[in-house]
Amino acid sequence: SAGMKDMYNQVLKFGAMIVDSLRAYDYPVFVYIMPNGELRGGSWAVLDPSINPKYMEIYSCDTSSANILEPSALVSIKYRESDIIKTICRLNKNSDEHDFNASNKHKTEFSEQEFSRNEKDLIKSYKSVAEYFAKLHDTPCRMLDKKVIKKIVCWKDSRRFFYWRLKRRIHEKKIWTDILSVNPSLNDESIS
């Protein structure tokens, strides 16, 4: 979160050191988001496979979630209350943006209290729908579709999957090393 406590504990410094180490690391690195696990915020910066695309791969369980922001934070930034009111007015023919204006003097005191309660309930309902919609973007299927993760791996299959994946990646590295020792003028793209 980069707060004062994190500054004193040098979390950012050590996070940067991890990124530097991963960039230079020349062995396979697998990141697995476990069941019901979440990968959020600054963790993306440290664990992003684009740091070392040749060796880093990220996988996810089918029940995990990941995104930079929490759904509620994303909604509060991208879909402010004024936008919610516009949506309510667009979808509800009985509502008008002037109805949501607190300075509207045509209301009686009783109807103003009643309307204010209804207005708050409507805004709350629309906001919860927006948060649910934002949460749908954090699913493993969406991450796979956006190519953020390499594959969805179920927890029960994960040990077998990662054993064979690691074995394959180590053999690939050995073959690359052997080819480069014979012909050092080749680059990684020409070997693949």
From TrEMBL:
<dbReference type="GO" id="GO:0003989">
    <property type="term" value="F:acetyl-CoA carboxylase activity"/>
</dbReference>
<dbReference type="InterPro" id="IPR029045">
    <property type="entry name" value="ClpP/crotonase-like_dom_sf"/>
</dbReference>
<dbReference type="GO" id="GO:0006633">
    <property type="term" value="P:fatty acid biosynthetic process"/>
</dbReference>
<dbReference type="Pfam" id="PF01039">
    <property type="entry name" value="Carboxyl_trans"/>
</dbReference>
<dbReference type="InterPro" id="IPR011763">
    <property type="entry name" value="COA_CT_C"/>
</dbReference>
<dbReference type="InterPro" id="IPR034733">
    <property type="entry name" value="AcCoA_carboxyl_beta"/>
</dbReference>
<dbReference type="InterPro" id="IPR049076">
    <property type="entry name" value="ACCA"/>
</dbReference>
<feature type="domain" description="CoA carboxyltransferase C-terminal">
    <location>
        <begin position="1"/>
        <end position="181"/>
    </location>
</feature>
<protein>
    <submittedName>
        <fullName>Acetyl-CoA carboxylase (Trinotate prediction)</fullName>
    </submittedName>
</protein>
